[in-house]
């Protein structure tokens, strides 16, 4: 496939499926923390900011870490299509449970669990199917295609934030959750139709999975068992020594962080050491591990949108436009709006650049981190003003979301493209799951960071925003400096792939 084939048959169908799924996810996410902290007499759960932020982080982290077993199930048993259908059904059930939960907290949390499980099945596999539409060395076309696909994500996100956010804040929280259930139903119907037409030859069940030899199989099983055992031992040790408190939301979030880090490292080592990889595949895995760390750091700052930045908009931002009060949740839609506006320019640029020069993926990720950090630097003077008790103009958040969007467009669709391209062929869905584990870790870190950024005590916000800027921008600059030597060592100076047979 040439780079001129940017949008092959099937891409539009996947675009629409992801659009409706993201409507349901982001529509619910827009109001989740507001619902959790709202007073019980207003039909909220009446939680503290710290507990609500921890629960928010736990939920979003769970939704993404479950992409790892979701990819594994598709690679070994179901194939992408079946995993997506089952995931969509479970997501829809989860949203229905949220809508009917009333004051029953356990029903509400069961609904969150269903959404997390369904998202874990759907997210890595629909991205894998997008990757299957492109030749591995069509870097520019693949980046452009994933950028277009990413626009679908954000059309769904902005519609979900607007509709579910408005219904939740003005009609009642469970109206917003119900709207998300309806959106997932439309997404599921669209995918079932596309499966019989433009996607009929994609995402089928895999051939019978087997290891090339008994020794490789034993190593795989040994590593898998060791990972599970290590997770249990580490969490138990941390609980027994008082490092974490498993009876609190914040303690559970800390335990989840320990689980995510352990699983991520164990998963990487399992494929690297027991995956029967060639030398070039192992070097590409190291590249993916470095990008994983960068992505987790990026998402830890970016995903403050649903927690601390959402509360900043709600409590510290002037939202009155004449007689209309702008819902706080609507500020999150700025990100999606900017993505829709900027994606065509970014997609065209990736095609243009591919024909003239190569921009290393490390440079793209590094600049993304710098842009995200600058978004927080802009908020520092706003936080100083808010600390005096004066609400600030919404233009500060507009500028922050614009910079975060620029960073996201340099990292997220590029990351999807790169992970689908550099992954060893037989582990593609699992490696896509590994990419989403970075988002899982970042979301959890975002929740824990937000717990320390209470808008009721705004005096600490300037220092918190400054620290995020320094860490993010500093790591981004390091990535840019590493781009050339790492690309030369791991990829032979070029990101194009020469197919090699597995090591014997």
From TrEMBL:
Q: Where are the transmembrane segments?
A: 53-74, 83-100, 106-126, 147-167, 173-192, 222-240, 252-273, 285-302, 334-353, 365-383, 395-419, 431-452, 464-483
Q: Which GO terms describe its cellular component?
A: plasma membrane
A GO biological process this protein is involved in?
Answer: oligopeptide transport
Report keywords, A-Z.
Answer: Cell membrane, Membrane, Peptide transport, Protein transport, Transmembrane, Transmembrane helix, Transport
Which GO MF terms does the UniProt record name?
peptide transmembrane transporter activity
Q: Which compartments does it reside in?
A: Cell membrane; Membrane
InterPro entries in the record: Dipep/tripep_permease, MFS_dom, MFS_trans_sf, MFS_Transporters, POT_fam, PTR2_symporter_CS
Membrane protein topology class: Multi-pass membrane protein
The family database entries (Pfam families) matched by this protein are listed as: PTR2 (PF00854)
Looking at the record's lineage, which domain of life comes first? Bacteria
Domain Major facilitator superfamily (MFS) profile, residue spans: 10-488
The entry's family comment says: Belongs to the major facilitator superfamily. Proton-dependent oligopeptide transporter (POT/PTR) (TC 2.A.17) family.
Under what name is this protein listed?
Answer: Amino acid transporter
Species in which this protein is naturally found: Rhizobium altiplani
From which lineage does this chain's organism come? Bacteria, Pseudomonadati, Pseudomonadota, Alphaproteobacteria, Hyphomicrobiales
């Amino acid at each position: 496939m040439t780079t001129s084939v940017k949008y092959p048959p099937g891409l539009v169908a996947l675009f629409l499926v992801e659009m409706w799924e993201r409507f349901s996810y982001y529509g619910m996410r827009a109001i989740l923390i507001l619902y959790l902290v709202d007073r019980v007499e207003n039909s909220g759960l009446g939680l503290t900011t710290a507990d609500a932020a921890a629960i928010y982080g736990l939920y979003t982290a769970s939704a993404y870490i479950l992409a790892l077993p979701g990819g594994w199930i598709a690679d070994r048993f179901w194939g992408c299509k079946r995993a997506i259908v089952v995931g969509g059904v479970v997501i829809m059930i989860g949203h229905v449970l949220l809508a009917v939960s009333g004051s029953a907290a356990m029903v509400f949390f069961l609904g969150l669990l269903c959404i997390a499980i369904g998202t874990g099945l759907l997210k890595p596999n629909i991205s894998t199917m997008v990757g299957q539409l492109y030749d591995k060395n069509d870097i520019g076309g693949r980046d452009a295609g994933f950028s277009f696909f990413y626009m679908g994500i954000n059309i769904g996100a902005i519609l979900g934030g607007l509709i579910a956010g408005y219904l939740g804040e003005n009609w009642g929280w469970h109206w917003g959750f119900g709207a998300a259930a309806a959106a997932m139903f439309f997404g599921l119907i669209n995918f079932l139709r596309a499966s019989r037409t433009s996607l009929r030859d994609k995402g089928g069940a895999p051939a019978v999975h087997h290891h090339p030899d008994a020794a490789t199989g034993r190593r795989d099983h040994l590593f898998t068992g060791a990972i599970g055992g290590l997770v249990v031992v580490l969490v138990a040790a941390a609980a027994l020594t008082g490092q974490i408190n498993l009876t609190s939301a914040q303690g559970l979030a800390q335990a989840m962080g320990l689980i995510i880090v352990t699983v991520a490292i164990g998963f990487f080592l399992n494929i690297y050491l027991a995956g029967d990889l060639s030398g070039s595949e192992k070097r590409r895995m190291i590249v993916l591990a470095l990008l994983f760390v960068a992505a987790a750091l990026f998402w830890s700052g970016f995903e403050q949108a649903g927690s601390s930045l959402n509360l900043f908009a709600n409590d510290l931002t002037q939202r009155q436009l004449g007689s209309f009060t702008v819902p706080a949740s609507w500020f999150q839609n700025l990100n999606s709006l900017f993505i829709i506006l900027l994606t065509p320019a970014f997609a065209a640029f990736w095609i243009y650049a591919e024909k003239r020069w190569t921009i290393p993926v490390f440079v793209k990720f590094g600049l993304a981190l710098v842009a995200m950090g600058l978004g927080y630097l802009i908020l520092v003077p706003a936080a100083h003003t808010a600390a005096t008790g004066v609400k600030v103009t919404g233009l500060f958040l507009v500028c922050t979301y614009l910079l975060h969007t620029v960073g996201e467009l340099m990292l997220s669709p590029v990351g999807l493209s790169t992970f689908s391209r550099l992954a060893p062929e037989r582990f593609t869905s699992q490696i896509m799951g590994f990419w989403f584990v970075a988002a899982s870790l970042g979301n959890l870190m975002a929740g824990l960071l937000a717990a320390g950024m209470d808008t009721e005590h705004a005096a600490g916000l300037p220092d918190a925003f400054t620290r995020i800027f320094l860490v993010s921008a500093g790591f981004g600059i390091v990535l840019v400096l590493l781009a050339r030597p790492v690309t030369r060592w791991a990829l032979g100076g070029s990101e194009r792939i020469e197919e090699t047979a597995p090591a014997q």
